[in-house]
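quick one before i forget lol
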Amino acid sequence: MQSSPRGRLRVSCPVIYGTRVLVPALAGYLDRYPKVQIELSLNDRFVDLAEEGFDAAIRAGVLPDSGLIARPLTQSPRIACASPAYLARHGHPHAPADLVRHNCLAFMVATGPEREWRFPRPDGNGVERITVRGRLDVNGGLALREAALAGLGIILQPQVMLQDDLDAGRLVRLFPDWAAPTWPIHVVHLPDPHMPPKLVSFIAFLRETLGDGSEP
């Protein structure tokens, strides 16, 4: 009974990553393990795995100190962009340092608005850290995208969410000569020396299909 993955697996994941990346990949997992049922909760907050009964969570960004086991998957590029209408009204920033004169819309993380934006320097010599300011902070990436499309300001959000808008010209990428900053993507779970096969198989599948191979 314990050797074959089976049962309900409760997983939390950020909305965009879950919608655009995880859900399409799950078909392969569910085909491979027909006795597992996945309950996927999409939200942009850090859930409490123990309190809320989750087996695992996908998390983007720098992880806070916790007792969770974190296994790296990949890096998620993030793009600074704005609408053509915003740039026409307020000017086009040509380097990250110019952002201090613009309305930058911040993503709300557990510790508050993300106001320090980091950009890898083109010469490879470290990163440029810019403290941005803005009049709108939001705890959801999709809402920030809508705000940018409405011309409210500049956002720094995952490329996987913005690519269609960039391709269509609804949003304009800023600083194309600079490498895109990235957020690490991890799968986390509670420490357990006897992890059930459904969780072991799920983590192995994620690392096989979504991982970048940077760690064994």
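fyi The two ends are 29 Å apart (CA to CA).
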